Amino acid sequence: MQQILRSLPPGAKVLDLGSGPGSFDAADCPLTIVRADLSAAGSGNFVQCSSDRLPFRDRAFQALILNHSFEHFEHLQETVNEIARMLAPDGLLYIAVPDASTFTDRVYRWLGRGGGHVNLFTDRDAVPRLITAATGLKHVGTRVLCTSLSFLNRRNLRTRPQTKLLLFANGNEAFVRALTYLLRCLDRLFHWRSSVYGWAFYFGEALDPELTTWSNVCVRCGSAEPSALLKPARRPLLPDVYACPKCGTRNFFTADEGFAYLR
Length: 263
Hints:
Radius of gyration: 19 Å
Order of helices and strands: HEEEEHEHHEHEEEEE
Structural class: alpha/beta
Shape: globular
Strand order of the largest sheet: 3-2-1-4-5-7-6
Helix content: 10-25%
Low-confidence stretches: none
Number of strands: 11
Strand content: 15-25%
Number of helices: 5
């Protein structure tokens, strides 16, 4: 997503669709960011509206960001038509969705009684086909996203933990940290997909996205970082650890090279 934001000229208009109060930090972006969501969740440049009937003029935005919201839209085709209407001819589009066949998404939907996921994607080509057919935008790349299991972390819960969470040590952060590391180790050894969350899709002729799978995702804030930029603490006979650059939480470290097979 940041690759798209950094490529835009200052003042460019960006729509963060299905964002809640915001799906990314815009503090360092010299852009005009508009947030839109069905729920009244934001302030400033926030518009409460339905994704299939957006109150914006044609070709109004140079970029659209749908960061883990596409799976929640009840009227998906109508929403895609709105995306096609509002995006500038040379516009850029980012869509991230969970893979509904993965361990992470199955647990998320089990805990959340569906979790609001009304569109279940298991084919990595389904979203590109849908978007390209409606918009004509070129699909320029797909990045595989790894899980943080941050939805299991009790520190992130705003309500009392449900009984089901007892199966995951009642959301204990140390347990979540160990579980994500175990899943990544199993994947590196057997070339499985147990640590995969979903996909990020990039659309737009002007983009040349870097598509390396980032395996290190914070168990508290969910921020992913490339392993080459992290500075893990080396520990003999114990997993290396790093402090999340965004929130400071300790996480176990893995080198991204071990997940090249996921591309």
